[in-house]
Amino acid sequence: MVIRIGNNSLQLIVGDITKQTTDAIVNAANGSLLGGGGVDGAIHRASGPELLEECKQIRKEQLKGEYLPTGEAVITKGYRLPAKYVIHTVGPIWTGEGIDEKKKLLANCYINSLNLAKSYNLNSISFPSISTGVYRFPIDLASEIAIESIVNFLQTNIFGDVVLTLFTQNDYNIYFQAAQKIIKTN
Ligand code: AR6
What we know:
Helix content is 42%, strand content 20%. The protein contains five helices and seven strands, in the order βββααββαβαβα.
């Protein structure tokens, strides 16, 4: 599915984000930036040990030893990945409490990643389904937040191409439905 928004596009695909050839791919990281399971583990394995070294450097210098706050984003090189850059963001952990705040933080992940990509003059970016794995954010709600945030950004910026890389056909179907709903109301 490809949605045209001005000169920009939003595409939904089923695939492995580590194989994407967009200028940047986004990592659903944790605040430590030191890797983990899921898409984070896959990105670190495919990129190689230099990625972890650069993440450690960012923790030390840019973040003064602190964790990357939820909803924020930082950028590293892609090393052995086809993508030139990796944008690391931290999604909210779903607990069933503070839902409005969690929704806002998830939107921030997409918006801050897109703004960071734009500030690096990048023209294409691939996102995974942030927070809907280990962090247990309900995917029906997460898909709507993701698509709304991206569509809103593409309506108000000259950027290029955004790809939502969904790992399973089931996830793709849920994002597809969310996209259809949001396009109708726009
Ligand atoms: N390509 C695309 N999507 C993938 C891939 C892949 N190679 N591998 C998994 N997914 P998760 P979260 C999907 O758990 O919920 C990590 O340990 C997966 O099917 O990776 O934000 C971090 O270090 C799911 O749909 O991220 C954090 O501690 C989506 O990616 C924590 O997990 C996100 O699932 C972050 O949890």
